[in-house]
């Protein structure tokens, strides 16, 4: 019964013509159970169940995506606009899987597409994927079957559809993924760790190799850009309106004071903190997602905050070691003992509040700008693929990271000043707000952006080094 209803409602839902408008209206009327001209989450959920295509969380995601006036439901115009946009994205993904452009997807095309993403599936598993979408029994999926299967499911790009296949109602062990969700580039210092790993990945040890590859890429990237990072911190703390320090002048001062190797001061602990930060973030995410698995972003944010809290004393040590004068400390442990003896435990958490506050605007703006740029590019330039390509993604990431840094940089500067303040003047320990006011009063608004130029300069080399090292490490560890 539900298959007949599902086919009658969806099979004629052609996009971008008058027929589709009537099909959308018919579908909307059937979903609008109380006939009030709006479809809310409960009605959509009930409708999906009636058509036999209910998927956990789909109704909420569809309403959230299409609800333009934020009234918690979809009117017909919102419903129609959502479906048209969704179909366009589904079409791009379908075309990217249709390798030979014959209008149909077969098992070999699924295998080939997933293999390019580092995921190996057998022909039998690819056929099982096809079978879940195949209506006419040909073991091939045409556009109508693809659209019908995913029209009322919020997944549209290949990554989301792979996750759906990965966690769908098929046999849990039917698809043994050789590699899980690939790490994405963090346009700061290193590669970000994946959000989750499958049980197969955990038992096989592949997750350890992925983390090792990411850690090595981060270590090489941080070492390669360490002079720019030290220059940034140097300018944040020492540059003022009356003591202008430019890029060349700052480098020259550091070399004159401590020699060429002084450009790498603080890099040792900056590299060492990758391992505990990654491990704590991963473990915290594993615990966080068990509380409310549908809130991945919240779990990720909590994991990041947990890791930052645990390793923050190392951040303070890094700042002090970066700013140290020749002979001031015998090493990392001597620095830690000196701080503890002279300033107490609280000194290891100087600047902690602005550090956490800075995560909010950076993460929010970075993500929002990245998604906006990527979707805009797809809307105007995508033709046969929903994958923008590495160059476009790196461009979107660079711009979004820049916007995030512009929003959060004043807080980062205040954090660094507070971390360094005790070693500079023990009698002057201002709060975050008073330090902000002092900087603006003495140096003006742009005083909040001291050192941002070397910070921007290190983004592209950091990304490039991370990407290259990560790919070589994957090959070397056998996970390419």
Automatic annotation (TrEMBL):
<feature type="domain" description="EF-hand">
    <location>
        <begin position="85"/>
        <end position="120"/>
    </location>
</feature>
<dbReference type="InterPro" id="IPR002048">
    <property type="entry name" value="EF_hand_dom"/>
</dbReference>
<feature type="domain" description="EF-hand">
    <location>
        <begin position="121"/>
        <end position="156"/>
    </location>
</feature>
<dbReference type="InterPro" id="IPR002067">
    <property type="entry name" value="MCP"/>
</dbReference>
<protein>
    <submittedName>
        <fullName>(Atlantic silverside) hypothetical protein</fullName>
    </submittedName>
</protein>
<keyword id="KW-1133">Transmembrane helix</keyword>
<dbReference type="InterPro" id="IPR023395">
    <property type="entry name" value="MCP_dom_sf"/>
</dbReference>
<feature type="repeat" description="Solcar">
    <location>
        <begin position="205"/>
        <end position="290"/>
    </location>
</feature>
<feature type="repeat" description="Solcar">
    <location>
        <begin position="388"/>
        <end position="476"/>
    </location>
</feature>
<dbReference type="GO" id="GO:0005743">
    <property type="term" value="C:mitochondrial inner membrane"/>
</dbReference>
<dbReference type="Pfam" id="PF00153">
    <property type="entry name" value="Mito_carr"/>
</dbReference>
<dbReference type="Pfam" id="PF13499">
    <property type="entry name" value="EF-hand_7"/>
</dbReference>
<keyword id="KW-0050">Antiport</keyword>
<dbReference type="GO" id="GO:0015297">
    <property type="term" value="F:antiporter activity"/>
</dbReference>
<comment type="similarity">
    <text>Belongs to the mitochondrial carrier (TC 2.A.29) family.</text>
</comment>
<keyword id="KW-0106">Calcium</keyword>
<dbReference type="InterPro" id="IPR018108">
    <property type="entry name" value="MCP_transmembrane"/>
</dbReference>
<dbReference type="InterPro" id="IPR011992">
    <property type="entry name" value="EF-hand-dom_pair"/>
</dbReference>
<keyword id="KW-0479">Metal-binding</keyword>
<keyword id="KW-0999">Mitochondrion inner membrane</keyword>
<feature type="domain" description="EF-hand">
    <location>
        <begin position="19"/>
        <end position="54"/>
    </location>
</feature>
<keyword id="KW-0813">Transport</keyword>
<keyword id="KW-0677">Repeat</keyword>
<keyword id="KW-0496">Mitochondrion</keyword>
<dbReference type="GO" id="GO:0005509">
    <property type="term" value="F:calcium ion binding"/>
</dbReference>
<feature type="repeat" description="Solcar">
    <location>
        <begin position="291"/>
        <end position="376"/>
    </location>
</feature>
<keyword id="KW-0472">Membrane</keyword>
<keyword id="KW-0812">Transmembrane</keyword>
<dbReference type="InterPro" id="IPR018247">
    <property type="entry name" value="EF_Hand_1_Ca_BS"/>
</dbReference>
<comment type="subunit">
    <text>Monomer.</text>
</comment>
């Amino acid at each position: 019964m539900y298959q007949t209803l599902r086919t009658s409602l969806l099979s004629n839902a052609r996009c971008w013509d008058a027929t589709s408008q009537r099909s959308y209206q018919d579908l909307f009327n059937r979903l609008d159970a109380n006939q009030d001209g709006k479809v809310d989450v409960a009605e959509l959920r009930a409708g999906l169940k009636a058509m036999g295509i209910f998927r956990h969380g789909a109704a909420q995601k569809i309403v959230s995506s299409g609800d333009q006036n934020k009234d918690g439901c979809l009117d017909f115009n919102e419903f129609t606009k959502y479906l048209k946009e969704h179909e366009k994205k589904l079409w791009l993904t379908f075309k990217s899987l249709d390798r030979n452009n014959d209008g149909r997807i077969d098992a070999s095309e699924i295998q080939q597409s997933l293999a390019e993403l580092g995921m190996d599936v057998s022909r039998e598993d690819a056929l099982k994927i096809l079978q879940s979408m195949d209506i006419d029994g040909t073991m091939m999926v045409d556009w109508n079957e693809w659209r019908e299967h995913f029209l009322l499911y919020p997944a549209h790009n290949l990554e989301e559809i792979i996750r759906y296949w990965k966690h769908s109602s098929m046999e849990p062990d039917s698809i043994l993924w050789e590699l899980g969700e690939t790490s994405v580039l963090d346009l700061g210092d290193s590669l970000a760790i994946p959000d989750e790993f499958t049980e197969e990945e955990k038992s096989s040890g592949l997750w350890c190799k992925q983390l090792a590859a990411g850690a090595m890429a981060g270590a090489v990237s941080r070492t390669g850009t360490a002079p720019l990072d030290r220059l940034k911190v140097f300018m944040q703390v020492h540059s003022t309106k009356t003591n202008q320090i430019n890029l060349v002048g700052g480098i020259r001062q550091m070399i004159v004071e401590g020699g060429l190797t002084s450009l790498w001061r603080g890099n040792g602990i900056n590299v060492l903190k990758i391992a505990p930060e990654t491990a704590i973030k991963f473990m915290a995410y594993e615990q966080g997602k068990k509380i409310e698995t549908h809130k991945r972003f919240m779990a990720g944010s909590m994991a990041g905050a947990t890791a930052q809290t645990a390793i923050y004393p190392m951040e303070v040590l890094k700042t002090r070691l970066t700013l140290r004068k020749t002979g001031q400390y015998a090493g990392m442990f001597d620095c830690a003992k000196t701080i503890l003896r002279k300033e107490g435990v609280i000194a290891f958490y100087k600047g902690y509040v602005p550090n956490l506050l800075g995560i909010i605007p950076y993460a929010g703006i970075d993500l929002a700008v990245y998604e906006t740029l990527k979707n805009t590019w797809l809307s105007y330039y995508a033709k046969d693929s929903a994958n923008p390509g590495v160059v476009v993604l790196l461009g979107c990431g660079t711009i979004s990271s820049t916007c995030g840094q512009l929003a959060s940089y004043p807080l980062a500067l205040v954090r660094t000043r507070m971390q360094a303040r005790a070693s500079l003047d023990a009698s002057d320990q201002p709060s975050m707000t008073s330090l902000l006011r002092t900087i603006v009063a003495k140096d003006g608004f742009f005083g909040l952006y001291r050192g941002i130029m070397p910070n921007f300069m290190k983004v592209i080399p950091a990304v490039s080094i991370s990407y290259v090292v990560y790919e070589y490490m994957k090959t070397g560890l056998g996970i390419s």
